[in-house]
Amino acid sequence: MGRRKKPRDSMDDTRSFRTIVLERDNHACVNCGRTTNLHIDHIIPISRGGQNILSNMQTLCETCNYIKANYMPDEAAARFADPRHKCWMERRTREIDIYGSIENKYKLGKLLRQMGIKNAWELRQELRATTSNPTT
Q1: Domain residue spans of the chain
Q2: Which of 21, 86, 101, 121 has a CA that sits 20 to 30 A from residue 110's CA?
Q3: pTM for the whole thing?
Q4: SS3 for the chain, per residue?
């Protein structure tokens, strides 16, 4: 069973403000500048008393939004400066550049397992075997 999602109330304008916020931020993450996998984030989180107004919204990429979570701006800045998070961000950014999104990475892994290939090493060996011994 997963986490139970809280129903959104009618006062939540995040979705209606999405295009306005994306255009204001030039369709790029305000933290790192990425232009893919963008999310709309509350600068001061709703759980900490923030409001659903344009001045409290910003565009963040998936990775930066994950690191920021529901922290206040000064706390989030400390998390972005943390070397552990920097290393994780770099690795995740490389994965997004390769796969297009993290979801695609997991979909590819699931597809490979369905084919009976457990990891990338086995896939590489399988590809080498088929290319070195082509069947005619």
Answers
A1: 14-100, 102-131
A2: 86
A3: 0.64
A4: CCCCCCCCCCCCCHHHHHHHHHHHCCCCCCCCCCCCCEEEEECCCHHHCCCCCHHHEEEEEHHHHHHHCCCCHHHHHHHHHCHHHHHHHHHHHHHHHHHCCHHHHHHHHHHHHHCCCCCHHHHHHHHHHHHHCCCC
- The tokens describing 118, both together, are 């457990």
Q: What angle do CA 125, 128, 130 make, to 5 degrees?
A: 110
| CA distance to 5, 8, 76, 110, per residue, from 89 (Å) | 27, 30, 14, 23
Cβ proximity of 38 and 59 under 8 Å: yes
Neighbours of 58 (CB within 10 A): 21
Topology given in CATH for the domain delimited by 14-100 = DNA Binding (I), subunit A (1.10.30)
| CB-neighbour burial class of residue 24 (10 A; exposed 0-12, middle 13-18, buried 19+) | middle
